[in-house]
Design a protein that fits this description.
The structure is a single chain. The chain is mainly α. The chain has one domain. The protein has two helices and no strands. The radius of gyration is 23 Å and the shape is elongated.
């Protein structure tokens, strides 16, 4: 996509409005949700608050959780 420069906002062409309920709106919404699911998958963290005795124990738990999540 080329970069376009404008001297003022009056030179900018108004964007096309997509009305809710139209076919274009449904297509655009579907593509936004597809992109979100593709690039930002849901990551479910273990519930609750966890206390650890030391930093090493917390890091080990985090690595174990990450291993289980990737599978």
């Amino acid at each position: 996509m080329p970069v376009r420069k404008f001297r003022s906002l009056l030179e900018v062409e108004p964007t096309k409005r997509i009305l809710p309920g139209s076919v274009e709106f449904s297509r655009a919404l579907r593509s936004v949700f597809w992109l979100a699911a593709t690039f930002a998958p849901v990551q479910k963290a273990p519930p609750g608050v966890h206390k650890f005795r030391c930093l090493e124990e917390a890091q080990a738990r985090k690595k174990a959780w990450a291993r289980g999540r990737d599978e």
